[in-house]
Design brief:
alpha/beta; 6-stranded mixed beta sheet; 5-stranded mixed beta sheet; 6 helices; about 30% strand
């Protein structure tokens, strides 16, 4: 399915370790350290008030930390490309509506940020944890983008679609290499979870 381009471009700023909650970050880092596969990537739905210490957070913001801890920020540079969405098919033939980030280089399933902390969220705050930087990107969740994500979700549930193997067979090498990085390990974490882990350690 072709990506649907939106109007509002994201904004970005760099964070320091003092800008994010140390306890939550330790819990996330401990989970990442437990993963054997070096290229494993994951996302963590978090309360922005808990994670972002020095950031002005709005009541209708939601927040996801995307852990690309084995990759550098230069591999996923800041872009003025407008946010978009599309349907992806996983190697296990699951299909998801996804939000495309960093110039369509990252595909984040909508269920990774579906636990809204407001009836009608207006912004998605994405914190990227790279090997050499922590970056905060603010994405406007306007009505059009939310509607397109919903349409992608309906398309993803349809029974008439190609399998992952069929899609791979149809694609040429160049187009397959540009397939966005898929964040398929999607978790929720709260301060209380981090406290419980540290108490049991």
């Amino acid at each position: 399915m072709q990506a649907i381009v939106q109007k509002a471009a994201p904004s970005q700023k760099q964070l320091s370790s003092s800008d994010v909650d140390a306890q939550l970050m330790r819990s996330i880092q401990n989970y990442l350290a437990s993963i054997d596969h070096i290229d494993h990537v994951a996302s963590f739905f978090v309360d922005p008030y808990e994670l972002l210490i020095n950031e002005e957070v709005l009541p209708d913001d939601c927040c996801v930390l995307v852990a690309l801890h084995t990759k550098s920020a230069t591999e996923f540079p800041e872009t003025t490309t407008n946010a978009s969405c599309m349907v992806i098919t996983t190697p296990s033939d699951q299909r998801f509506a996804t939000l495309l980030l960093r110039g369509d280089k990252i595909a984040l399933p909508d269920h990774a940020f579906a636990a809204w902390n407001a009836p009608q969220p207006r912004r998605l705050l994405v914190v990227y944890l790279f090997s050499d930087a922590i970056l905060l990107e603010k994405i406007s969740l306007d009505d059009e983008l939310i509607e397109n994500l919903s349409v992608c979700g309906i398309v993803a549930q349809s029974g008439n679609h190609l399998t992952y193997a069929e899609l791979q067979a149809e694609a040429d090498d160049a187009s397959w290499e540009t397939t966005p990085l898929r964040i398929l390990d999607n978790r929720h974490i709260e301060t209380i979870d981090a406290e419980n882990v540290e108490a049991s350690a």
